[in-house]
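Mods, move this if it's the wrong board.
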Amino acid sequence: MTDASFDASSAVVVTGLGLHGGFGDLDSTWQALSEGRSALVPSHRIADAPDLPLGCAVPAAKIDLSGYVADRKTTKYMSDTTAMAVLAAGRALEDAGLLDDQIACVGLALYMATSHIAFDLSQAVAALGETSETHLRELGQEGLRRCNPLLPFKLLLNMPLGLVSIVFGIRGPNFILYPGAEQGALALDAAVRGIRAGRFSRALVGGSAQMLSLSPLLLQGRSRLLAASPESARPYRPGHVGYAPADQAAFLVLESGPAAAERGRKPYATVGRISVGVAADEPLRRLGEAAPDAIVTTGNRDEVQDSQDLRTCEAAWPRATLASFDGQLGFGGAASFLTSTVLACRALGAGSLPTANLGSSSVRSLARVLVTFQDGDSAAAVSLHRGPA
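Not the wrong board. Structure tokens:
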């Protein structure tokens, strides 16, 4: 998005968006949402636990890094979590016009969130042969030793951050957080604070999570978070119980208003306030900004949380449209809040939401969007609006 007439201010603006999920990139995802299509698979099996009962899920589309990774050896160190992060980050940088700007990339801040380690147990099981199913002690003592020696690199929680940095030559301030969706909001908040304080002028913020792997699925299953069917995974609908786990990655490029104006970039959105808390409505109370035209939510577990959202939003902003993409894209853990934020920014750039609207009629002229997350244990919110602050 370019516009040389953009009159910058001291605002923090979003100039690049990148996504990878069940439908692929952002354009494909937006088109699918506009057509009302769902990426949820009614029954899915994962390679390292084919007998694990799983109601519905959203596996990511094929990961193709050929446009961003020149050295194929680099991909040997990548888990799917890392590969999705590199792909979505590359798309965001490309969208912002920074992909080939090596000087700008060196100074980028890089803040990320990721979920629990997606351990591909099938490698260890295959290393033991026929005895692996019954001899758990042998699996623990010998299985990992017989795996590919690069497997430990794939298991490190900081590998998504490290490989994104290496592939795109990023050397600015950085950190990676885990495991919840609120960590994406904290990463976003750190980037915005850094830009406003003048520590750096640009930041790449993202989240990547492979929820369809043994460890994450067991954690979700024990907490009774998994929906039994696509119908029960849809927020704000009767019978909503649980969510569809999804493999997702989402990244945003943030810049100061002057930095964006210097490059002639028109922003998708301006970032307002960000709040993270424990009580579901706490972040909303803290924001204290103008009423949004739409509220995009993610992470709701069931009808109880749906009702809580509806009551809170109707009391504060009765005219706002309430929407969620979880029923079509699934819930991507640490990537989910940023996925919703990417889609909200795209909606502001387009002037309207796609046809995933739930709860009220669609917005004719979209100028302000509030993105919220809650899962019963934590909550987060960010306000976004179109144009300079």
